[in-house]
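Forum: Protein Structure Q&A
Topic: Joint prediction for protein chains with partners

I've read a bunch of threads here and the consensus seems to be that you should model interacting components together rather than docking separate models afterwards. I'd like to see that in practice. Below is the full input, 775 residues plus whatever partners are listed. Could one of the regulars post the assembled result?
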Amino acid sequence: MDTIKVVLAGQPNVGKSMLINAMSGSNSLKVGNFSGVTVEKTEVTFHHDSHTLEMVDLPGTYSIRGFTQEEQVAHQYLLNEEYDVIINVLDSTHLQRNLLLTLELLKLNKKMVLALNMADEADKEGLEIDVTQIEAIIGVPTVLVSANSKEGIEDLLHKVHEVADSQERINSNIVYSDPVEEEILEISNLLEEKGFRLRDLTSREIAIRILFEDKDLYKELHEHPIMIELQPRIVASLKHIYTHHDTKNVNDIKANEYIAITRGIRMETVKSKIEDESKNSTQKIDAVLINKIFGIPIFLFLMWSLFQLTFKVGAIPMEYIDAGIGSFGDAVGSLISNPEFRSLVVDGIIAGVGAVLLFLPNIIILYIGIALLETTGYMSRVAFLLDGFFHKFGLHGKSFIPLVTGFGCSVPAYMSTRTLKSEKDRLITLFIIGFMSCGAKLPVYVLFIGVFFAPEEAGNMLFVIYIAGALLGLVMAKALRVFVFKGEDEPFVMEMPKYRLPSFSLIWHTVYNKALSYLKKAGTFILLASMLIWFASAYPKNISIIKKYEEKILLVESNSTLVVNLKNEQKLESLENSYLGQIGKFSQPLFEPLGFDWKMTVALETGLAAKEVVVSTLGVLYAIGDEVDETSSSLAKKLKDKISFASAMAFIVFVMIYLPCLAASMVFAKEAGGYRYLAYLFIFTTITAWIFSFITYRILL
Amino acid sequence: MKLLELEKHDKARILKIETDEALKGRLNSFGIARGSELTIEACSMGKQTIEILVDGTLIGLRGEEASKIEVERI
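Posted by a regular:
Agreed with the consensus. Here's the joint model:
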């Protein structure tokens, strides 16, 4: 079976990833509606017509000379890697701008197919595209497709097979402006007369590269004697072109020629059935959403609503889940006779995993909100609105995208900083992403807010926590900009994508996958962690403590309340002498000034592995220290009894700021460029967390 | 006049882009070059950012960048 290696190239946000999903019939690639969803090359392999197709999804690039880090990936790949066919994906509704990249791709002299994506949208906008004419001008097989409605997908795959099998290359019929064409003719005539050949280039192609000062070509030409004769011709030709364009900057000339060509192609091949110049819906929506006065309040309102929903709607199924887990624990517990094993299952596994599962509804709502932000096109607008504000804090407007992604999970957030061009902007953004509380911190907040605030205030509190974290992040960004990463600002130039109604299936798949991975994590990592924590809290068994209490209990056997009290005391003393107790007691002095007991201290420490573990640790620890007679009290009730308001708030602040989970920390080190940055991050976040937590505790005490 | 001096709904043609080559290249790849026609679609508060429409594409620019683009009103 033959393998065809296909690489997808195109400008950002034209739907390359979605097209691969449509071609392979899977949903493996993440898609969104803003530039820079894909920041790494990803490969998908599938079978079609007795061929194996290896599809390489490249990050979108506006120009082949990449500007930002993720665009460089595309550039490097296209120039240096081995592949059979390029599918150049274009947005049918923005053909003119997209064709600029096509002109550059043509220069690679590779086998290529043009996929005019979003054909359904073009149709809706009343655009009629003459595919045969585009094929004739560009000289590359062209297909109208829609990754959304799946039209033309089969056709595209057949074209890929055809092109992969064909040997010859069709010449393009791209016409430059008259003066450039005249000079192309002059130079190519000279090349023909001399019978000069270079690689597989035609004389015309060589002439064009000479005129546009292609450095690589000049290097090659340099070794040929023909250069002597060419030189005066080139000088004269350039002079002619300079006069015509009124500039000596070849890049400017090239840009003007290319824009003129693409405009020409569009006018020849795209007919608009709707003639009037009235505003389209995107412009109408923009008039409201990025309104000078209402833009930012609308944004804040939307965020506020999201957190209200997260809390209020999430609370409804939570009650049932909580009750369900409680009775499940009791039921399972009554089936197990061995007390050691029962404690492991009920106090360890069920309490630990259950504490995490409880928050699944909240997580789902938050993820729906983020998915909506990512797929509607609103994300880039917020970057636009906030750039001025962000800029004052030494951040780039585009930083908003990784920061918002950070509300979901820090791992993709760290990776998406690659869309920032300046290294310093990237580093600052990387350092403050942790201040945007990720989804895994949500359970901690919901738990503590639920305990200490009335239900009608809870949503607002959640909003306040997130906003406070974000504002603190901004202040830290400013500090980093002033003291550590001094330097030039990166310009803000950003495409504002068209607003799109998110398809239900798209949101469903994104949220479903995230919820599934949350559950998987609860079933594997959290399960293991809960068992470990249980073990560390139940062992080593201290014989002397057991003996001491056995004797005491024997003495007061007749008085049942005294027995219960003694049993509780014994549990507490055993717990304090367990491995976990020892660790907690050892490090507690550090957290004493913040009002944390040793259990909270341990929860913070285990939380370094993953933030969900904070709640499961609290679940396990407070389940063991439970009063014997009070069998079914929930974790929330126990916290209310044992932790003061001030300590709880200080705890929230600490969790809000301190180091992200292990997985995220590793990605951070990779993206920032070394483990020493992780050490900086650890010091930076821990000290900040301690200070702010201390202030919170002292104020509220 | 500079792009920054235009008001919402104004239409203009670009005369000159006076930025460094890297940024100019980026603007070019968006279809913003000498001779391109644009419309101002929206401005954020204090013209910190400006949204322009060029050949059917909406682009957000910072005021600072807009002050480096020479235009004539049409």
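The beta strands of chain A are 2-10, 42-48, 51-57, 85-91, 111-117, 127-129, 142-144, 270-272, 493-496.
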